[in-house]
Amino acid sequence: MARAKLADVAKMAEVSTASVSRYLNGSLVLPKETSDRIDAAISELDYRPHPHARRLSRGRSDIIALVVPEIANPFFAQLASAAERAVGERGYRMMLFATDNRLGRELDYLVHLVGADVDGVLFVTNHTDAGGELAQAIAKNSRVVILDENIDGVDAPRVFVDNFSAGRLAAEKFLEFGHRDFAYIGGPDGLMSVNERGEGFRSQLAPLGERNTRLRILLGDYSPIHGAQAMNVLLDEGDPPTAILTGSDAITLGILEVCHERNIRIPDDISLITIDDVLPNRFMTPAISAIRQPIAQMGQVGVDSLLALIDGSPETVAPVTRLPVEFIARKSVAAPREGCLKASSSKETSYGN
Q1: For 265-291, what is each residue's pLDDT tens digit?
Q2: Keywords of this protein's UniProt record, alphabetized (predicted)?
Q3: In sequence order, what are the beta bridge partners of 289?
Q4: This prediction's pTM
Q5: Cα–Cα distance between 273 and 327 in angstroms, integer?
Q6: What is the DSSP string of 131-149?
Q7: d(Cα 302, Cα 158) in Å, to the nearest integer?
Q8: CA distance between the termini of the chain
């Protein structure tokens, strides 16, 4: 038996094909008697609208795009997984694009995706927008939501974690154990998350006074290479900190490699807290304490915000959403060894950008 067509439904219901089409895509309200005839014809003929044709008639693809710097990084992999689940629950599909954190590819996706292949874009970058090109491209699209990192000059909805609290919580835990000499090995200089975490960390040290604490800041890529380089710098100075906050699990991997090579024991020699908790930190030796980011919630909120824009309800979307972080206590923080408290100084080092 041949598949029923729209014209067959219209003929049986004694209406025009245009009326059936508009009724099915929700753009036409009919009298109950007429709509009942259409529904009965659809049931009797077992009519199933062609998905692609129906999407075209509604002016939508029912697809959203997630643009991330890379997919090898577990943080972005988990974000993609969470977003795809949220999208599927709402009857949409998702396309994933990786930019290699390159401006040219980001701009290309922003220009060509929205309105052509997808209904909207969830966008993540991992670098600053020094020239303002990203902000200009996003300003031309009304259906873009920014996740994780800020882009200056953008009015699009943004979903971030509470980075300030991430730094504050780490410093608070170190201070509880009696530490006074710290290092923050963070990501690229100028990124919102990097700056805010540093500010949060400093906020906990301020009441103690500059003479009673020391904080060294080393910034670079979110990578094991940067973590290893920064750790070697601290150890080569001959006066390493007693507690280190790292800006990502990737950075932490590099730090752990150097500690192993140079016989630095965690937490006996140096205490360590990582931000992210996307790697199996609980299975490491010792298990690494972490500031856990709510990645799944970020994906869910981002999808909800984007679909509200697509549905024409921008007034229901918060301009900026901040999601809470959580401290996960494990075995990598302990009291400093006796005699480790040092005089204060502050030093910031940035490389690898």
Answers
A1: 999 999 999 999 999 999 999 999 999
A2: DNA-binding, Repressor, Transcription, Transcription regulation
A3: 273
A4: 0.80
A5: 9
A6: TSHHHHHHHT-SSEEEESS
A7: 8
A8: 65
